[in-house]
Amino acid sequence: MHCPVLLSEALDGLQVGRGGRYLDGTAGGGGHAAALLQRLGDRGWLLALDRDAEAVGRVRARLAPWGAAARVEQGNFADMDVIARQCGWERVEGVLLDLGMSSDQVDAPERGFSFMNDGPLDMRMDRAQGRTAADLVNRLDETALADLFWRLGEERGARRIARAIVAERARAPITTTGRLADVVARAGGGRRGRIHPATKIFQALRMAVNAELENLEKGLEAALRLLTPGGRLAVLAFHSLEDRVVKQTVGRHVPRWESLPAGGRRRLGLEPPVRWITRRPLRAADEECAANPRARSARLRVAESVSAS
Ligand SMILES: C[S@@+](CC[C@H](N)C(=O)[O-])C[C@H]1O[C@@H](n2cnc3c(N)ncnc32)[C@H](O)[C@@H]1O
To answer: Which terminal residue of the chain has fewer beta carbons within 10 Å of its beta carbon, N or C?
Structure first.
């Protein structure tokens, strides 16, 4: 079962206590969603989305006790404003995004997210969607693979690892997580500290397969369009690439003022305007990190939509 990270901090940030309509764009195991509904009581509604059909099934069952107050749909959070409108929602009081993969996904070897359990090299969150990690590993040329590992994994040995993969796949296509992890471990020169050398390579492939940064940028824009003035957006990121997209995409909506040569000033920044509630990302306390290792890398940012004036 997935253990939600920075749970009360995220719900506090969303000001769930005031009630209204909330959207959870990453339902996962339903941990944040259930706690949000609990806090809402009979003062509001939740629409929960996930790209992963299996997650949707699990969360539907988990949220069933809330009846019509909770609705769970399969969908990409990049389209959350369209999906919300299809559900009859024009505006929401809060949007939550808890990025990355859930423990349910990582722990299922057949999903191919983990190098700890051998399984098919898949990594698609939405299994109806086309390209798998095996497609990328076996079809991209060496330069494109190296570029991917460098860009999305920040892997310093990107070229060396790409070369080793291309040599290995010439013998037979690489179709399992175990075989890829072995190739990377041999090319990467063993463990660096506590981190397995395949960690960054698997992260890069997962992000590419699911177009995670592109969806994140679109999802943040969609969330800001959906928020009612005073509404809140809370985003949990788990590595610097994600956090940078959150900071920059939302940051472009924070108004700045430019003095005009002829006097006066004009406002710069995208519509709708927002303000940061968190000046710096919130991190999990030591106790939470000890209980849930995933919390160690979590960064929570919260922004509020402000009325245009
Ligand atoms: C970290 S888990 C969420 C866990 C959840 N907050 C909980 O408490 O159980 C992230 C989930 O987001 C989903 N996801 C990732 N990208 C998505 C996207 N673009 N649209 C919808 N769901 C997405 C994944 O399938 C995964 O189930």
So the answer is: C
Residue bearing the CA closest to ligand 1, atom 13: 26
Cα–Cα nearest to 250, from 282, 284, 225: 225
Cβ-contact 96, 36 below 8 angstroms: yes
Domain 7-104+212-305 matching CATH 3.40.605.10: the answer reads no
Backbone angles phi, psi at 228, to 5 degrees: -75, 155
Residues of the chain with CATH 3.40.50.150: 7-104+212-305
Q: Residue 232 forms beta bridges with which residues?
A: 94, 304
CATH superfamily of 130-209: Putative methyltransferase TM0872, insert domain (1.10.150.170)
User: Is 50's C-beta closer than 6 angstroms to any atom of ligand 1?
Assistant: yes
Rounded to two decimals, the pTM is: 0.96
pLDDT tens digits along 135-185: 999 999 999 999 999 999 999 999 999 999 999 999 999 999 999 999 999
The 10s digit of each residue's pLDDT in 80-120 is 999 999 999 999 999 999 999 999 999 999 999 999 889 99
